[in-house]
Each structure stands twice: as C-alpha cells, then as structure tokens.
Specification:
64% of the residues lie in helices and 14% in strands. It is built from 8 helices and 7 strands, in the order αααααβαββαββαββ. A hairpin with a 2-residue loop joins β4 (282-291) and β5 (294-302). α4 (118-192) packs antiparallel against α5, α4 packs parallel to α6 and α4 (118-192) packs antiparallel against α8. Keywords: Kinase, Membrane, Transferase, Transmembrane, Transmembrane helix. GO terms for molecular function: phosphorelay sensor kinase activity.
Length: 353
C-alpha cells in the first residue's frame, strides 16, 4: 500500500514538473517571439534554451539551496553558485550563436529581435531560475517551520506528561500521610469505645469519597475543598477533645472558583501535627477569603518547635505542587513569630479556570 502511494506521489510530482516546464516553454516562445513572425525560429531557439534552464534550476533547487544555503554554508553556496552561473552563462552564449549560425544561417537580420541580445536571453533564463528557487526556499522554510512546530509540540507533550506524573507522585505521597493521621485518630476512638465513633466513621467516609473521586481531578470547586477541610477539622476536634481551640473563618467564597484538590489540607494537617499545646490548648486559626479571582489563605498555630519543622514531607510536597500548578501565580510565606507558626498563601486562580 505504501509502495503504491509512493509511486502515485512520484507520478504526480513528475506531471507537475512537465506541466511547469511546458509553461516555461510557452513563456519563452511568447517572450522571444515578440516582434518576430518566424515561429519556427522562436520555437527552436526556446527548445534549445530549455535544457540549460532546467539544468541550472535543478542544480540550484536540489543541490545548492538544500545542501549549502539552508545549512548556512554560505561560502560554499556562493562559490558553487558562481561556478553554476559561469557555466550556464557560457551555454547561454552558445544558444545565441546557435540562433545566429544554425537557425538564421549567419543572417543577423533573420534572428528574432530579443534573441540577438545576450542580456535579454540571460534575463529570461535566470528569471525562471530565481522564481523557482524562491518557491523552493519558501517550501523548505515551511517544512522547517512544520518540523519545528512538531518538535515543539512533542516537547510540550512530554513536559505535560512529566508534569502529570510529578503531580500524581506528590498526591500519592500526600494520601498516605493524610490517611495515616486520620486512621490513628479513629483507632484511638475505637480503643475508648467512644460514642463519637459512628460520627467519626461518617466523616472519614466523606473524606475517603473525596480522595477516591475528586482528588484525581486537576481542579475542584473551592467550596468542595472547604467542606473537605471542615470534615477533617471535625475529626481532629474529636481527637483533641477539650485541648483544641480551632477557628475556621471563610469570607466571600465564590461558587465558581476552582482550586487544585488537597492543596490547602497539608498546611492544616501540619498545624495539628506539629502544633504545641500551650496552657492546656492547641490554638489554631484559619482564614480563607476570595477577592478578585485570588484566594487568600492564612493559618497560624501555637508552636514552640524549631522553625525547621516547616520543611516536613507535607509542606515540601505542597511547595512542589504549587510550583507545578501555579508557577509565578502564587506567593507563599511561612514564618515562626514568637510562639506562633504562620502560613500565608495567595493564589491567583485565573490559571486554574
């Protein structure tokens, strides 16, 4: 099948070349026939010029331009072009003598007026060469652009796949971390046979549903993520009992704003995991606000641990996810101020819609 298609393509190209050179022959007969009534002379003179024109043209478009000009070997292109012009000019001179000796039998007056002038004959030949060479360069440039675009698309596709793999890897790291904390909490309730255990199982079921069916999406509604965060906070409230003072404030939350799933939870997880109970309480304050397509997320918790714990697995992964999903569209500041550990995150959500 491919051989047959290749054969038909070659036949098609050959026919195009034949049609083109027939057009050039018509052009020559019209050009050199100006102010002449001897059609036989004009046709014979034009036919004599055709091999010179075809040979010169093919040397340029199939050898000099692809091998030297396109590859930026300008010196060799200029040198070989000069050789080609010299040889073709010599043959053009011969064509004029051919018209004088063989076609007009040494009678200068019998020659077609334009064919007497070497400059006009050379102009006709090189005009064809220049026009065809121009089209050849345009074709090669278009092919080069097409190849460059295909290569760029492949690179972008590869980068996108790599980005997706990195994100999936980071999500896989976050899930065990999150599930480990939650199951530990539920295990404690089971040991105590607490009455809150059924409610805790229901909250955990909601969280697992979120993990299974929402977290694999590139973006989810911010409102869904907030509900997920609330379920997690309720689970932690059950675990900490009266030793937890947590405030979660949301303001101006748009129903249409999207966010990467599981993006904010690691910050909240770390506030519970690394926060320190002071005066009998672990104090955590979380605020989430939307303004002008931006998400403003702030969290602070009591802590007496060294500042270096902010480089834990959860926060390290979330930093990588932010770089992949919101590169140059977010600001993140993590600070330790006296006995408070603070996280300030601003997301521009225009990139996620």
């Amino acid at each position: 099948m491919l051989t047959r298609q290749f054969f038909f393509n070659k036949i098609g190209q050959l026919l195009l070349h034949v049609i083109f050179w027939c057009g050039v022959l018509l052009f020559y007969t019209y050009f050199f026939g100006f102010d002449s009534i001897d059609f036989s002379y004009v046709l014979s003179f034009s036919l004599f010029l055709m091999p010179i024109t075809i040979a010169t043209t093919y040397v340029f478009i199939y050898e000099l331009i692809p091998s030297y000009l396109i590859t930026k070997k300008y010196f060799l292109f200029g040198l070989y072009s000069l050789y080609t012009v010299i040889i073709s000019s010599y043959l053009i001179v011969i064509s004029v003598f051919y018209g004088l000796i063989y076609l007009s039998h040494f009678r200068y007056a019998n020659m077609a007026p334009i064919s007497r002038n070497l400059f006009f004959v050379a102009t006709a030949v090189y005009l064809v060469v220049i026009v065809v060479s121009g089209f050849k360069m345009l074709k090669l440039n278009l092919k080069h652009i097409e190849k460059a675009n295909k290569l760029e698309n492949k690179i972008l596709e590869t980068q996108l796949k790599l980005k997706e793999q990195q994100l999936n890897y980071l999500k896989m790291q976050i899930h065990p971390h999150f599930l480990f904390n939650t199951l530990n909490t539920m295990y404690g309730f089971a040991l105590k046979k607490a009455d809150e255990a059924p409610e805790m199982i229901l909250k955990l079921s909601n969280l697992l549903d979120y993990l299974l069916y929402k977290v694999d999406k590139p973006f989810v509604l911010l409102t869904d993520d907030i509900d997920h965060i609330k379920d997690y906070i309720e689970l932690e409230k059950m675990r900490f009992n009266n030793t937890l003072d947590v405030i979660f404030l949301t303001e101006q939350i748009s129903e249409n704003i999207m966010i990467a799933p599981m993006l904010l939870l690691p910050f909240i997880e770390n506030s519970f995991k690394h926060g320190t109970i002071k005066n009998g309480l672990l104090t955590i304050k979380i605020t989430l606000t939307c303004r002008d397509k931006n998400i403003y997320f702030n969290i602070e918790n009591t802590s007496t641990q060294p500042e270096t714990y902010k480089n834990g697995i959860g926060l390290e992964n979330i930093q990588k996810r932010l770089d992949l999903l919101y590169k140059n569209h977010y600001t993140l500041h993590i600070t330790k101020d006296n006995d408070l550990f603070k996280v300030n995150l601003i997301l521009n959500t225009n990139t996620s819609e």
